[in-house]
Amino acid sequence: MRHLCLIFMPILITTGKNRYNYMFSKKLSIIAWSVLSLSILATSCKREKEDDTIINNESTGYAEEQLILEQIYSNADRVVDRALALGVSSLKGGEHPLGGCTEVKIDTTDNPDIDLMTIDFGGSGCLGYDGRIRTGKLLVYFANKVKDTEAGYYRRTVFNMYTVDGHRVGGHREMWYNGTGTTGMHSHNIVSVDTIYLPNNTGKVTGSSLRTREWFQGVSTPQTADDIYRLTGSGNFIRPKGERYYVEIAKPLVDALNCNWINEGVTNVYPEGATQRVLDYGEGDCDNDAIINVNGVKRIAKIP
């Protein structure tokens, strides 16, 4: 037996003044994220319970559920990016870039600087451009006077009975432009309040996360197919039976939009009172294989 001492601290975030007096303030979202993080994972050092040397479904469950959560929320960002880049006029008629059963519309809001895009996949199951089956709606409130590579850009995505391949998604995501920083590449901060309802009434995974998404490639072209993003960040989560865990991206996750899955990067998963799991997405091959490592024992898991 060995000891594992995890100290979870709130993340201090400093942002500039938000130019939009929008009803969903990003400052409040950050505060909410920090409070939720503390409530989930405030803990003290305790003797760690080592996992069995024989790897099994339960010992890899933390990482497998995180695999599902990370992929589904990143995929939702892809769908929103695609819809906003193409615009409503380009989404009408012909081969629909989001799936022929998808309806997209843009409405104004009480705030003249914010519009609402509704992406409606219907209720019977819509086969998307990437082979995934979706239902429900994505409600996207976005800044209408600036581009996503300009200061002041902001958007909020709300999941309205939205499902992907049997996983119902709750919560919301907020994104705002973060500048170019020392890398010279455009980046966005993403604060997310997460809920994934697992299929067959097997429970839900809840939590909160903070990501920085760096636009690594494709920023200068109008299409989204050549876009590549790199994700860093951390989060706190609760599993269906109440087990708590903390995640931290150890090697940036690569989300290349010409592939259906995150295909590179490493996430460390720290269960409360148990051994660290390592979730390895690979080195760039476009496949849905990921490797979960528990105490040196490895197992292949499938990315949804």
Question: Topology, pairings included?
Answer:
Elements: E1 3-4, H1 26-41, E2 46-47, H2 57-90, E3 103-108, E4 114-120, E5 126-127, E6 133-143, E7 154-164, E8 167-177, E9 187-197, E10 204-217, E11 228-238, E12 244-256, E13 264-271, E14 277-283, E15 289-294, E16 297-302
Antiparallel strand pairs: 1-2, 3-4, 4-6, 5-6, 6-7, 7-8, 8-9, 9-10, 10-11, 11-12, 12-13, 13-14, 14-15, 15-16
Rg over CA atoms = 19 Å
Question: Distance N terminus to C terminus?
Answer: 34 Å
Helical content stands at 10-25%
- Tell me, briefly, the overall form: globular
- The ordered string of helix (H) and strand (E) elements is EHEHEEEEEEEEEEEEEE
Ranges with pLDDT <50 over ≥5 residues? 1-25, 38-58, 89-95
Main β-sheet description: 14 strands, antiparallel
Briefly note the structural class of the backbone. Answer: alpha+beta
Helix tally equals: 2
Mean pLDDT: 81
Our estimate of the beta-strand percent is 35-45%
